[in-house]
Each structure stands twice: as C-alpha cells, then as structure tokens.
Write a structure and sequence with these properties.
With 136 residues, the chain is an alpha/beta fold. 49% of the residues lie in helices and 13% in strands. It folds into two domains: 30 residues; 98 residues, Oxidized Rhodanese, domain 1 (3-Layer(aba) Sandwich), CATH 3.40.250.10.
Length: 136
C-alpha cells in the first residue's frame, strides 16, 4: 500500500513539473510574434531606426539580404556577444532563409531580456516569393 501511494505521488510530481516547464516555454514563445514578410516590410521600409537582424551566415547575407539588415549569425559562437549591441527595449525583427534559425534566435533574444521580438515567417525565401526587394 505504501509503495502504491509512493508511486502515485511520484507520478503526480513528475506530471506537475512537466506542466510547469511547458507553461514556461509557451509563455516565452507567446512573447515572440511570428509575422509575415509584408508586415516586416511595412515596419522596416524606409525606417533606419528599426533593429533588423539577418541571422544567416555571412556568405548567405552577402548573397542577398533585406535593406537595412545587420548580419549576426545565430550559429556563430559569438552570437550572444554581438546581440548585446542591440537595444533590448526596442523591437527586434529577425529572419533567416526559411524560418528555423530565426525561431531559434528569437528564443535566445527573449531569454536575454529583449522586450519585443518579431520572427519573420518563411524567411527570405518567402520574402522573395512575395516579390519584395532585397539588396546584395
């Protein structure tokens, strides 16, 4: 009987801990807004004060990038150090090729205390598909 009670308490404890972690992650992700390329365009077009970050490699950035973007590669070891130059109190827009790396970068930025992080849906591929302008 004591063993059964112990097992039930153990299972409930593990369940509550899992729920708590899931809630924390959802709250973090909930603060990251995934927005369309058009919404990013509307926010950054002719606005030099916006923090627009291309999180792809330097080579990908050199190929083409969004006007006004700065390149801080999320897979580089010094990513955390480089993003410290950004203003945490201002919105940050991030993008990559398809959306995977920018989602990772957005999570890192939120964990570092950035107040508002926007992740561009579909990356630069969707941007180009929508016939929006890029630079080389």
């Amino acid at each position: 009987m004591k063993n059964l009670l112990f097992i039930i308490v153990l299972i409930l404890s593990i369940s509550f801990q899992s729920c708590k972690e899931a809630t924390s992650n959802s709250e973090l992700i909930g603060e990251i807004e995934v927005i369309s390329p058009q919404q990013v365009y509307d926010a950054v077009h002719d606005n030099d004060t916006v923090q627009l970050v291309d999180v792809r490699t330097k080579e990908e950035f050199t190929d083409s990038h969004l006007k006004g973007a700065q390149n801080i590669c999320v897979t580089d070891d010094d990513f955390d150090e480089k993003v410290k130059t950004l203003d945490k109190s201002k919105p940050v827009y991030v993008y990559c090729k398809k959306g995977g790396r920018s989602a990772n970068a957005a999570k890192k930025l939120k964990k570092m205390g950035f107040s508002k992080v926007y992740d561009m849906e579909g990356g630069i591929l969707l941007w180009e598909e929508k016939k929006l302008e890029t630079e080389k």
